[in-house]
Amino acid sequence: MFERFTKDARDVVQGAVEHGEREGARTVGAEHLLLALLDREASRASFALAALGVAERKESVREALSEARRRGGLSRAEVDALAGLGIDVPEIVSRVEEAHGAGAMTGDRQGRGRRPGRRSFGRGAKDVLEGALRAAVGRRDGRIGDEHLLLALTVRPGVPAEVLADHGVTYESLRRVLYGEGTAQAG
């Protein structure tokens, strides 16, 4: 499938692997793809993010992803659902970090999370890559670009889609910016 990726899309995938390696993740996740997309300049995805106002708020996106990692990768919707069952995730995170140190749920503690070797792609990242293929095929685009990766991130439930939506990036807003499709929404 990677032979169908544009150079920009391949660079995003390589950047995601590098983000995963830097944080010592066992696998490359969807959040690493989003971090790599934030690093891009002069590409279709970076244009779309800038048009939607994310260029000035990249650090806010990174902080939101970091906070989700601290919660063990749970989205706010998942935290809220657990709270409805009487499970206080912030309290659990606090107790785990109290007992095992800051970052205990992320694997970032004092280099202990560093793992040598190649990172495989986790289910979330694989879903995004497959979604990008579907987006490109659905548009009858010959190649898979970084904009298709960004579109796929917005439709896969989880932390990256939640963080993007919180910053005004949805599937509909991306389609409008990238392809002039859909209707403009006030707000």
Automatic annotation (TrEMBL):
Sequence segments annotated as region (Disordered): 100-122
PROSITE patterns: CLP_R
Biased composition (Basic residues): 112-121
Keyword Transcription regulation among record annotations: no
Pfam families from the UniProt entry: Clp_N (PF02861)
Keyword terms, alphabetized: Repeat
Residue span, Clp R domain: 2-187
Protein name: Peptidase
Species assigned in the record: Streptomyces griseochromogenes
